[in-house]
UniProtKB/TrEMBL annotation:
Transmembrane segments: 51-69
Membrane topology of the entry: Multi-pass membrane protein
Name under which the protein is recorded: Protein-export membrane protein SecG
Compartmental location: Cell membrane; Membrane
Gene: secG
UniProt entry keywords in alphabetical sequence: Cell membrane, Membrane, Protein transport, Translocation, Transmembrane, Transmembrane helix, Transport
Biological function: Involved in protein export. Participates in an early event of protein translocation.
Family: Belongs to the SecG family.
Major localisation: membrane
InterPro entries: SecG
Length: 75
C-alpha cells in the first residue's frame, strides 16, 4: 500500500502542475502570463479537474487506511 501511496503522490503532483494558472500569482511573475493563449480547452480542463479530484480522494483514503492499519497493528 505504501508503493501505491508514493505513486498516487507523484501522479497527484503532476496533475496539479498540469493545471492552467489562474493569473495574478507567482506564475505571472515568471512568465506564466505569456502562455495564456496556449492553455487547454474547456473539455480537457474539466477532465483534468475530474482526474485530479479522483486521485486526490484515493490518496486521502489510502492515507487514512494506512493510518488505521498502523494504529491497530495490522502492518
Amino acid at each position: 500500500m505504501q508503493i501505491f501511496l508514493v505513486l498516487f503522490s507523484v501522479l497527484l503532483t503532476l496533475l496539479i502542475l498540469m493545471h492552467k494558472g489562474k493569473g495574478g500569482g507567482l506564475s505571472d511573475m515568471f512568465g506564466g502570463g505569456l502562455t495564456q493563449n496556449a492553455g487547454t480547452s474547456g473539455v480537457a480542463e474539466k477532465n483534468l479537474n475530474r482526474w485530479t479530484v479522483i486521485i486526490a480522494l484515493l490518496w486521502v483514503a489510502l492515507i487514512i487506511a494506512l493510518g488505521l492499519m498502523t494504529k491497530f497493528g495490522v502492518i
